Amino acid sequence: MTNDQGPATAHDWEGRVASLWERLDRYEPADFRARVAALAAERPADDAAALFERAAAHDSTGLPAEAVELYTRALDRGLTGLRRRRAVIQLASSLRNLGRPDRSVELLTAERDLPADRLDADETALAGAVDAFLALALADTGRDREAAALALGALAPLLPRYNRSLTHYARALLTAPDGS
Fold it and tell me: How many CA atoms lie within 13 A of 114 on its CB side?
């Protein structure tokens, strides 16, 4: 594909994808998915980034089952970096919404356990999102104390005060009797 400046670049494609996502709410769901599909079609058929964008479009427009298939394909095709981390979070969320919270817990626990030296700064910035979606999945599996501890632990660094206390109390939830 070309534009007025010559052949389209990966940077150009990324910019057009980002621009389309900024306008998500302006489109009807089917129209938005079609626009993302058209951008994805500019890449090779099994391009991991294009599969991810299609998955996210399905997910964001209320089609989580279709999104699960596309996220899985994107990850299987070697999706990397920030998109990989986002795909894991979004796949786990979709699975949870489809009644598979146990699988969601598995994916997010593995993601949470990745060594920090394997993640770049953008991926590390999503650690709180991993914890938040894991907390939701844990709650859906009946592991409410773990969910609360994880959610509170993720919240603690964001507070202007009481960070140390909240972190301590969050850990204590995992060792204190649950009152039952």
Answer: 20
Q: Give the three-state DSSP class for 6.
A: strand
**Residues 98-131 pLDDT 10s:** 999 999 999 999 999 999 899 999 999 999 999 9
- Report helix, strand and coil shares of the chain as percent, to nearest 5: 70, 0, 25
What are the DSSP calls for 123-171, one per residue?
HHTTHHHHHHHHHHHHHHTT-HHHHHHHHHHHHGGGSSS-HHHHHHHHH
What is the spatial distance between Cα 151 and Cα 146, in angstroms, rounded to a whole number?
Answer: 9
Question: Is pLDDT above 90 for 70?
Answer: yes
Q: What is the model's pLDDT at position 4?
A: 45
Report how far Cα 89 is from the mean position of its chain's Cα atoms. 3
pTM of the model: 0.88
Question: CB neighbours of 38 closer than 8 A, spacing ≥ 6?
Answer: none
